[in-house]
Write a structure and sequence with these properties.
Layout: H1 24-32, H2 34-45, E1 54-59, H3 68-71, E2 79-87, E3 94-102, H4 106-110, E4 111-116, E5 124-131, E6 137-141, E7 149-153, E8 156-162, E9 165-174, E10 177-182, E11 200-206, E12 214-218, E13 252-257
Antiparallel strand pairs: 1-3, 2-3, 4-13, 5-8, 5-12, 6-7, 8-9, 9-10, 10-11, 11-12
Length: about 270
């Protein structure tokens, strides 16, 4: 049975001088759904095909005809297989791959919780979204690509000002949803307020269907990327303009294993 530690407190002391950058109704709605979001995150990462279940990503040679069914030969019943593909950064050709998921993986058995900052209304931000040409791409370095980059579609710029600093962030199109990959000084830092070393992710929400040029950045829902749960993922890293000069003390921090230590980040 997976043990969980769902934090429900609300911060009133974090960054006391930071202004409130969202309407009262937006903040109330964000806080009202936060506990349910935390519970859903725990369920997702511990699911039979969740982030903790991935035990192997195998990229096949062009002549290799291995199928997911064949990849399961000799594996226990708890293991399932799926197919995936990507474009090779060296040849430009499409590569086939297979992923293996174990519902009883060592990571699932060792998992305790995901540490998290208390909810902080000062990290709920209403920002401006300016669409650009749909074909615009920005190069993102990925953890397992040895310094090479992959071009991802970034359909617009996200702008806001906080503590006198203007930010212009790039969120890429993740199957129709804007996904922000960001970094800050807490990444890899020691102590209670340290977060996952390679950065964190955040889904960007529209303020409303009628107000398409306004978005919500609720950093209380910032989350550890899949590569924080398994080194078999290849996650994008934050581009320079998505790196905050101040710690983002909201959202998930690190994956915590049952013996009480945080899972180390992947090497890159």
């Amino acid at each position: 049975m997976v043990m969980t530690d769902i934090v429900t407190e609300t911060s009133t002391a974090s960054t006391p001088t930071a202004p409130i950058l969202a309407s009262p109704s937006t903040i109330v709605q964000a806080r009202a759904g936060w506990d349910a979001w935390r519970e859903a995150r725990i369920r997702r990462v511990t699911a039979p095909a969740g982030d903790l279940a991935l035990i192997e990503t195998r990229w096949l040679a062009p002549e290799d005809t291995l199928t997911p069914e064949e990849a399961l030969a000799g594996r226990p019943d708890t293991v399932t297989a799926t197919a995936l593909s990507r474009r090779s950064l060296e040849t430009g050709e499409i590569e086939r791959g297979i992923r293996l998921w174990d519902a009883q993986s060592p990571a699932i058995r060792a998992f305790e919780t995901i540490s998290v900052f208390p909810f902080d209304p000062r990290w709920v931000i209403e920002a401006t979204f300016t669409p650009v040409n749909e074909s615009r791409t920005i190069p993102f370095e990925h953890i397992r690509d040895n310094g090479l980059t992959r071009d991802l579609v970034v359909p617009g710029d996200i702008r806001f000002e906080r503590d006198g600093v203007e930010y212009v962030l790039s969120a890429f199109d993740d199957d129709g949803t804007l996904l922000l990959v960001f970094g800050d000084p807490s990444n890899g830092a020691d102590g209670e307020d340290g977060t996952y070393a390679s950065g964190r992710f955040l889904f960007v929400e529209r303020l409303s269907a009628e107000d398409s040029d306004r978005v919500i950045l609720d950093f209380n829902r910032a989350f550890v990327p899949p590569c924080g749960f398994s080194d078999q993922y290849n996650c994008p890293l934050p581009p320079r303009n998505n790196r905050f000069p101040v710690p983002v003390t909201a959202g998930e921090k690190r994956v915590v294993l049952r013996h009480g230590t945080a899972r180390a980040s992947s090497q890159h």
